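Re: folding output
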Amino acid sequence: MTDLLFDITFWFAAPFWALMILAPGWRRTSAAVASPLICLPSLVVYAVLILPDFSGFAKELINPSLLGLQAVLGSDVGAAAAWAHFVAFDLFLGRWIFHDSRARGLPALLISPLLALTILFAPVGVLLYLITRSAWAAQSRLGRQRGGHRRRAQFY
């Protein structure tokens, strides 16, 4: 059962990733990823995996130690639960990047590779997105300032 839950976890998220990366401009993509509930199937898998030994997981998560976490996450159930956790939260972050980048007018060709990176290494993908977002905003401000100076110069 654990193997099956591990295997299906990513397949719950894959269609949403495919839409955000490969079809970001398609009108149905925004609707498909509009709700954070797209993460729900992976979160349910996580709950199904940890609830039978909730006290064992809680013990290690409330007062974590490296050895204790290694023991919990080193089991089949622990590894599958960690995978479901990663998939759910990576998708949540990817969804946020998708919506935030569209609201800010960042080009999909710039964002799609960052989303692909976020699937594999979410902290790195999010960090690079935040850097990209800041650089894009700075570039936009600079462009507006230059344009504004030109207009003022024309009136003097």
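--- second protein (sequence, then structure) ---
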Amino acid sequence: MHERPFALPFDPAGIVLDRRRGLSQQLYQALRARVLDGRLGSGTRLPATRDLAVMLSLSRNSVVRAYDQLYAEGYIESRVGDGTYVSQLPKLSTQLSTGLSQGLSTGLSTICVSDTEDLSSSGRSGSAMERLKTHHLPPPRTGAPRAFRVGVPAFDLFPFQLWARLQAGFWRKPDAALLGYGDPAGEPLLRGLIAAYLRRSRGLACTAEQIVITSGAQEAISLCAQLLLQPGDEVAVENPGYRAAGHTFALAGACVRGVPVDEEGLDCERLAQLAECRLAYVTPAHQYPTGVTMSLARRLSLLDWAEQRNGWVIEDDYDGEYRYSGAPLAPLAALDRQGRVLYVGTFGKIAFPALRLGYLVLPQRLVQPFSQGRALAVRHSEIGNQHVMAQFMAQGHFQRHIRRMRKAALARRNVLKAGWPTGVPGLGDMPEVAAGLHVRVAVDNYAREQELVALAEAVGVEVNPLSSYWLEDSEVPVDKRAGLVLGFAAVPEAQIADALMRVRKAWRT
């Protein structure tokens, strides 16, 4: 029998909802806040959805939606025949507070003050050239997308005519005030709209002043590497993970340490064993490339680690908008009350990568140093796409496009799932895909992985080997690194079905 710690009964007092706004979202936020601040302790039994609906004079559907989101994010758990309880959460060495820390890390202040001296005295430019040779990153696949390219959304659904009309409207008679040197952090209008979108859709409380516009997510990661690291610093990255991030940190002179990923995400116990590490890069919403979602317990442990180490967490939310049941999960940064998380967002997975438009959401104390750092690197961003994206968002096109893209990605995922070949030696079944734009499929061993990839390529189908996402010095045996990574959003359903037919024939033959 499942033992439960003693917990006070649920008390709905204090839950006040504004009937003019979304009730399920307000209820979710109220219950979530009570779990995080301890008013709803681990093991507290929650009322049945019907009973809570009566207590709060809500429809049962509103309560069900709120509970569903809390389930998805790990705040509550269901026990068959026994009801709904607050999940068992880790005991943290520091509680999540309600205010930002006012201290500035010595690492960042040193870099900002003495960067020129470090460059001249340590010979970083020469050593960077050597690091570039050592950490060569293969170029991304180019050309028109085909099945099953990873990392690209449905280009065919983007409203290019609308975008061209907005673009033409801006350049027909641009405001002269916008044609000079702009704000290094980006256009204020776009930053404000991004902040409003994140507050409304992702539960991330932030202001326009905390946002820095970048030329895609990769520049955001590079900016973090330049301003948060000094040569010799340790950086933790997921293993397997997004190799381009690891290469960026290595190029900045960091010692990149791979931390294993399991079914709950980054292994925080292994992270804690890195005694000198003060920076961790993670993809918690949909881990790249395994696709797992970081559990709430791991998220809280990671934030606790950052607070204890006086460190930083870079959260790359590259495809967080794509969730196929319920609302997108709240990002790790939404839990951060100590100002330790730098949130990386991009328009590349909603629009197209060639747009080169991303952003950073920074803790308040990092805004000025990052704006200054970007001013030194590129002065400021190109104005046209920023202004057009601002209009695209302000006129409601952005949210409509997200809904269209999410629906299309779900349909394309379903075609892949339905047509996935079975009975192929060494190839696993298609797993459930609850979020994101790609999926990982198991393969028995490395040799079979390489064979399946080569056979697919021979019939014009792109399949990525999971083994290529691991660090070279990984402790995990080569055969344990095997698998396939497939994107399912890049091409329409008919092309997916055709590609499946070709690989079924190639792999079975």
